[in-house]
TrEMBL record, chain A:
Residues 4-83 form the GST N-terminal domain. One of its GO terms (cellular component) is cytoplasm. Residues 89-223 form the GST C-terminal domain. It comes from Selaginella moellendorffii (Spikemoss). GO terms for biological process: glutathione metabolic process. One of its GO terms (molecular function) is glutathione transferase activity. It catalyses: RX + glutathione = an S-substituted glutathione + a halide anion + H(+). It is an enzyme of class 2 (transferase). It comes from the Eukaryota. This is glutathione transferase. Keywords: Transferase. Its EC number is 2.5.1.18. It holds the Pfam family GST_C_2. The keyword Electron transport does not apply.
Automatic annotation (TrEMBL), chain B:
SUPFAM superfamilies: GST C-terminal domain-like, Thioredoxin-like. It catalyses: RX + glutathione = an S-substituted glutathione + a halide anion + H(+). InterPro entries: Glutathione-S-Trfase_C-like, Glutathione-S-Trfase_C_sf, Glutathione_S-Trfase, Glutathione_S-Trfase_N, GST_C_5, GST_C_Tau, Omega/Tau-like, Thioredoxin-like_sf. Keywords: Transferase. Residues 4-84 form the GST N-terminal domain. This is glutathione transferase. One of its GO terms (biological process) is glutathione metabolic process. One of its GO terms (cellular component) is cytoplasm. GO terms for molecular function: glutathione transferase activity. Its EC number is 2.5.1.18. Residues 90-216 form the GST C-terminal domain. It comes from Selaginella moellendorffii.
Length: 227, 224
């Protein structure tokens, strides 16, 4: 039986890359890791992802798969393992996909603006970021009441898509100049954060939030000349 | 056996809504259609069905709302797999189909939006970006399904359904963009794909006329 060749091209602070780490680690898949310098992208990255030239890229037996949620979906299909990330029920699957996509549309988008924007736009980015977390708190209470994850007792596609933002909370608050509401306001969110952080597979690849914060502050300076 | 209740909330020029039409029509699913007037006020039903984004399209199936066009198409494919699945069974082929569907949003729709809303240099760049995106689709068709009419080979798949709605908007984008798209000599795969899509009976059911779409686009452009 020939051994699968699985390689992840990534840049360590990327929350999109972290989604792929989480999916592979939750399923116990062995893989090689290649850190990419985004200011000097490798020939391998450019050939693997000619359309976007972005990380993460998963290369499985020589075939590249791009776009983090497409990759997670792929991993779930190839290695269904002991539990599938995507629910079998079509409606539950649609709900999981919706919240994964919400992570890109609302959470990542607001976070990006927290790093790049100035003045009023920057202030709005902070409000939008908090609104997005509030919606996630509400969703957890509606979709899986009394359970730690969107997936109930175990992480599912939505959890994997959203969990990488957790290690960025400190950084976003720093550059946003605000403090996030706490567990009294968002009980479901904080239970979810604790539950995610307790999963052994999640601990393998999650960067320290101090290290991420350092990066976030560096990016902010790059855009604005100020911390 | 109780009858399924399937309703699509949409706004007729939306290419996202058209994806849902295409998926339902290709699978021969019966559904009710509700045209949403997005201005001045969205309907109570839409706001309740999609409280996060308050956008169309929304599919309401037996009272449960599903939002976001590609998620809806995925849902339709799961609930009504016959006569043929839109998503390939093979994980890699499925990933390729998802990638090109997503490309429609990230690159084609994005450039098209800028063609309608941007001015000056940004508007000119939007035109270049739009043409680049179509060129990439032409190349992809040649690589993924050489000699076949669709991304899905002989029949439309998830990528085809995601990208086909842009076809009836080509005229509109050229009008507001002030350019003419390269023809079949430059993009042979793309134009064969366009002809193949337009020949599918199910596609003809809901596609608005390109002239009507162009008229609508010009009205929006004038407001900008």
């Amino acid at each position: 039986m020939s051994k699968d060749s699985v390689k992840l091209l990534n840049f360590w602070p990327s929350m999109f890359g972290l989604r792929v780490h989480y999916a592979l680690d939750l399923k116990g898949v062995s893989y090689d890791y290649q850190e990419e310098n985004l200011f000097n992208k490798s020939k391998e990255l450019l050939e693997a992802n000619p359309i976007y030239t972005k990380i993460p890229v998963l290369i499985h037996n020589g075939k590249p798969i791009c776009e983090s949620l497409v990759i997670v979906d792929y991993i779930d299909s190839v290695w269904p393992g002991s539990h599938k990330l995507l629910p079998e029920d079509p409606y539950e699957k649609a709900v999981a996909r919706f919240w994964a996509d919400f992570g890109d549309r609302k959470l990542y988008d607001a976070g990006s603006r927290l790093i790049r924007a100035m003045g009023e736009e920057h202030k709005k980015a902070g409000e939008d970021f908090k609104w997005a977390l509030m919606k996630i708190d509400e969703a957890l209470g509606t979709i899986a009441p009394g359970k730690p994850f969107f997936g109930g007792d175990a992480m599912n596609f939505a959890d994997v898509a959203l969990a990488p933002f957790i290690c960025w909370f400190k950084g976003y608050q720093k550059v946003g100049g605000f403090v996030l509401p706490g567990p009294e306001e968002w009980p479901n969110l904080y239970k979810w954060v604790d539950a995610v952080n307790s999963v052994d597979a999640i601990k393998i690849s999650t960067p320290s939030d101090d290290k991420v914060t350092e990066s976030v502050e560096r990016y902010r300076k790059h855009f604005t000349g100020a911390a």
